[in-house]
Write a structure and sequence with these properties.
This protein has 325 residues and is α/β, with parallel strands linked by helices. It is built from 14 helices and ten strands.
Length: 325
C-alpha cells in the first residue's frame, strides 16, 4: 500500500512537472536569421534572460540566407525572420511580408581612407573600393552627392570584392578608400587607415536586426506575435541600457573575444533604435533606399511594408509599468 502511494505521488509530481514545462514552452517559435552576429543581440539577450520562456515561447534561431528566409517565412516553415531588406524587396513583388520591429535603423558601414586623405573633400579624383551594387554602394553614392562629389565625375567606384580584400587594397595603394563593415573596420583602423565617416551617425536609414512576419500569422496567432515582440523588445532595451551584459551576451553567442565584443558594441550603439520603433519619415527613407537599389521610382504606400502599431503599444505599456531591463 505504501509503495502504491509513493508511486502515485511520484506520478503526480511528474505530471505536474510536465504540465509546467508545457506551459513554459507552449509554442515553439522559429526565427530565420542571416548569421550569428551583433545585429541579433536583442534575440540573444531575450532568450538568455528567459523573457521568451516567460511568454510561453521556445525560440529557435535558425541560420539561413536571406532569400531562403523569405521563402521559409512565406511557406510558414519559420514564424519570423530578422532580414528586413530582403523581406521588403520581396514585398515589392507582392509577398505578404511586414516589418514590425527593428533593432537598428542606421547603416552599419564605415568609410576608411589612406591616412593622407584627411576629409571627404580629399576624395576628389580618388578611387573608392566597394562590394558592387547594393545598399552600401547606394548609401555611399547618396552621401558623396550630398558632399558635392559626383560618382563618375569626381570619384571612381571600383568593385574590389569582400571586406577582407577591400581594406587591404587601400593599404596596398590599389584604391584610396573603401566602405567597410564589422569587424574589418577595426583591421582598417589597426592598419593606420583614417575613418572619414561612420554611417551609424549620419542621417541615413537602413534596417537590421528586425522582426519580419507574414501577414497570415497576425491573423491566425496574434497573441504569439505579441508575446514574441514583447520579449524581443525587452531584450532590445537590455542591449541598449546594459552595456556589460550586452557585451557578455555577444561574446557567448557570436563567439568573439570580450575585447572585440566591447569594441563592436561601442561603435554600433549609436545605430540602435530607442525602442524598436520607426517613424514614418524613417520608414520612408528605409524604403527609398531599397527602391533605389531596385531601380523603382514611385514610392508605394508604407503600410504595405511596415506595421509598428504593436511595437508602439507594447513599448508604451512597459513605460507605464516603469519596467527596467
Amino acid at each position: 500500500m505504501e509503495s502504491r502511494k509513493r508511486f502515485a505521488a511520484i506520478t503526480a509530481a511528474i505530471l505536474i512537472l510536465l504540465s509546467v514545462v508545457q506551459v513554459a514552452y507552449g509554442r515553439t517559435v522559429r526565427v530565420g536569421i542571416p548569421g550569428h552576429n551583433i545585429t541579433q543581440a536583442a534575440f540573444y539577450l531575450a532568450r538568455e534572460r528567459g523573457w521568451y520562456r516567460d511568454e510561453g515561447l521556445e525560440v529557435q534561431l535558425i541560420m539561413m540566407p536571406a532569400p531562403v528566409s523569405n521563402l521559409a517565412l512565406i511557406a510558414g516553415n519559420v514564424d519570423f525572420t530578422s532580414v528586413p531588406t530582403a523581406a521588403i524587396t520581396a514585398a515589392l513583388r507582392g509577398a505578404p511580408l511586414r516589418v514590425l520591429f527593428t533593432s537598428f535603423d542606421k547603416p552599419l558601414f564605415w568609410l576608411y581612407a589612406r591616412p593622407e586623405i584627411r576629409d571627404i573633400k580629399g576624395l576628389k579624383d580618388k578611387k573608392i573600393g566597394t562590394s558592387g551594387l547594393g545598399a552600401a554602394e547606394t548609401l555611399l553614392r547618396e552621401f558623396l552627392k550630398k558632399q558635392g562629389l559626383e560618382v563618375g565625375r569626381d570619384v571612381t567606384l571600383l568593385n574590389t570584392g569582400a571586406d577582407s580584400v577591400r581594406w587591404v587594397s587601400v593599404v596596398s595603394g590599389s584604391t584610396d578608400a573603401t566602405v567597410i563593415t564589422l569587424p574589418w573596420n577595426f583591421s582598417a583602423e589597426d592598419a593606420g587607415l583614417r575613418n572619414l565617416v561612420s554611417f551609424t551617425k549620419e542621417d541615413m536609414v537602413q534596417l537590421t536586426g528586425s522582426v519580419v512576419i507574414r501577414e497570415g500569422l497576425l491573423q491566425t496567432e496574434p497573441s504569439v506575435v505579441e508575446k514574441f515582440i514583447r520579449a524581443t523588445l525587452k531584450g532590445h532595451l537590455a542591449v541598449r541600457e546594459n552595456r556589460a551584459e550586452a557585451i557578455a551576451t555577444l561574446t557567448r553567442n557570436v563567439k568573439i573575444s570580450d575585447a572585440l565584443a566591447a569594441k563592436s558594441y561601442d561603435v554600433i550603439r549609436p545605430a540602435l533604435t530607442v525602442d524598436g520603433g520607426l517613424s514614418e519619415e524613417s520608414q520612408r527613407k528605409a524604403l527609398d533606399l531599397i527602391l533605389q537599389v531596385q531601380g523603382i521610382k514611385e514610392m508605394p504606400p508604407l503600410e504595405r511594408f511596415f506595421d509598428f502599431a504593436m511595437q508602439k503599444r507594447l513599448s508604451a505599456d512597459l513605460r507605464s509599468k516603469n519596467w527596467k531591463p
